[in-house]
Amino acid sequence: MKKLSNKVGICRLQLLLLVLCLPLMSIGQEVGSMERLVSPEIADDNTVTFRIKAPKAEKVVLSGNWMPSVPIEGGMGMTRQTVELTKDENGVWSITVGPLEPELYGYTFVVDDVNTLDTANLMVARDGTFRTENVLYIPGAASELYWAKTGPKGTVHKIWYESPTLELTRRMFVYTPPGYEDSNENYPVLYLLHGGGGDEEAWSTLGVANHILDNLINSGKAEPMIVVMTNGNPTQAAAITVSPKIKPSDQPAGGMANMLFEKSLVNDVIPYVESHFQVKANKENRALTGLSMGGLQTLNTSFENPELFDYIGVMSMGFADLSRFGIEVDHSKRGKQIDALKAADPELYWIACGTDDFLYQSVVDMRNELDKHDFEYTYRESTGGHTWSNWRIYLSEFAPMLFK
Amino acid sequence: MKKLSNKVGICRLQLLLLVLCLPLMSIGQEVGSMERLVSPEIADDNTVTFRIKAPKAEKVVLSGNWMPSVPIEGGMGMTRQTVELTKDENGVWSITVGPLEPELYGYTFVVDDVNTLDTANLMVARDGTFRTENVLYIPGAASELYWAKTGPKGTVHKIWYESPTLELTRRMFVYTPPGYEDSNENYPVLYLLHGGGGDEEAWSTLGVANHILDNLINSGKAEPMIVVMTNGNPTQAAAITVSPKIKPSDQPAGGMANMLFEKSLVNDVIPYVESHFQVKANKENRALTGLSMGGLQTLNTSFENPELFDYIGVMSMGFADLSRFGIEVDHSKRGKQIDALKAADPELYWIACGTDDFLYQSVVDMRNELDKHDFEYTYRESTGGHTWSNWRIYLSEFAPMLFK
């Protein structure tokens, strides 16, 4: 009997599926030998083994977002550390890493300097306009909110709505909580904004917002609520996945400067949601939060509309100087805006940032400015940086504080 | 000024996004030079240029599903032809192919025998348990139904429902047509089943069913209808994308034999849809179709429940001998089933198959058997084989015949 040294296997159904789909098979799949590598393989102790077949390669490395960042030569920024795989006699490269902490990770291989997905792992996520990566889920207490557990589930509605402000029919995702379909009750609403480079798909893919909300609601930690996930790029109708004509370069250079998204959120999105869903349409039952670019949009929207939201969360963004990108803040206006928002007395103003975040200083500056005005806020400082790992944690902590 | 020979470019917003996301950058991206390859690049004449940077590679080929299939050495099946790219002095490999016919294509690179996605192209689709590929959309008359055009759009609901039959909380996608949210009318329902290896995500990704329906309905070619896209693997709660614990090997060897999915469709799915959506709940307003394994499930369900559907479509499946996979058909029963379905007199029984489909003979056998019983059906024979290209065409032709 052949030794399955590379963790290969085939079951009867796979054989049938193979037969039903043979004409579709692409090159590179091992049809002849019926073998399929197992990668990644998570052991009971949370060590993880990665494998890729590349007989001709001279060097294969693994780039995972759990690895520390290191400066890039030339000073343009940071990149990830990598680890080298080793090759066996069949041309299969492998490495065992960890144990890894429970979390949702992204990784790719780099085969002779070419970024390469793990074809044995069908869990793939697009990180906005930046890249596509494989997804690795390590179960455990710290990540237990991040996947579809047993129990009631909410619905994610992929909706198109009219935006007169932007002169577009646009797409957004609306999460309704477990039981919504069978209820006559009205629900509060959280508006949840993504960051630069992202789109309306970000929070339900990398952000797993629907799983986080399902699990928080099912365990009684968060109130049942509707969550609205918009596309924050004002010239984009929808993510690139539905409109091949949407290229990254179609995103507006002034997308953050012109306040157009913020206007469409207030004038188009909120009225649509409040007229098409079972919604408690008042300040006490509206929350707004966003990360990075979405944090800036949260700041802008809540300063311009102090009476709209009782719960405001700013993630990984502060009073940053973005003037070199053409984004000017009217500082004479800001003091009055802070006072107006203070007068509106929101139930919660929450600020979250990681100590390694490159925007950390902008958050310090914002807090200093708010302090000058005796503006009340709650500050949550985490470890780590400008990462989805932090944004998932922030959502997991922010949602339970809402509508109580 | 530097000659942009490799079609690289960066705009101001991309620079800003880069700055906002630098800590996330992964290795392999050309942060230092701020360059991003353009690939694929579609010219006005529909020739397409593909590019990948792989300085150390000895051979790079392109594998696209528009290329003909060729037998694999050893006789185990077919694979695709490939074409070789050529390398320039910067290590960028490229090739221009076509012109290509308007269509939605899948492709990958193979770099020194390693399947590699085009990292410059963020449009990626998972083909069930088989692979992940890049998507290439060539616009034109033949593919005009396949993307989100201007105009009203339906909603795709990602729903979880209880399946007592399968003892699972399961996921399905339900498409509601443009205007549904603002209407008090009831709508007919099409139940749309995927093939072996697929799941509930197949018809709205590779099948672009929501775009096809939006465009057919907006142009008046199809009646407004609800479309229900289930997961046909009876031990799966949901696609692997939401449940990392779902592995391909968790699919049941007997999934097609045990009729469990068919029972859950009738006992769980249809009652859920008819009690939670604005539905015309009668035979005249129910349609069922599926491809390959879903075609078998369509045959089984309509034979077992002759009074349930007035519109039945069987795509790329016939009376196939699947006994070597443990799937036994009771032939003594079949004649009676055909007669019972004939007595129920469905409005449309539609059979579609490609001349190159490996199941073509099973469709010939089915038609012969139906003919023996003077059973009325419409037969649509296309060119091509067992492909999503054909299944998109079949849906585009089947939907306009329904509910009229």
Automatic annotation (TrEMBL), chains A, B:
Alphabetized Pfam families for the sequence: Esterase
Native source species: Flagellimonas zhangzhouensis
Alphabetical list of PANTHER family matching this protein: DIACYLGLYCEROL ACYLTRANSFERASE_MYCOLYLTRANSFERASE AG85A (PTHR48098:SF1), ENTEROCHELIN ESTERASE-RELATED (PTHR48098)
SUPFAM superfamilies: alpha/beta-Hydrolases, E set domains
Transmembrane segments: none
InterPro entries: AB_hydrolase_fold, Esterase-like, Ig-like_fold, Ig_E-set, Mycobacterial_A85_antigen
Gene Ontology MF terms: acyltransferase activity, transferring groups other than amino-acyl groups
Name of the protein in its database record: Enterochelin esterase
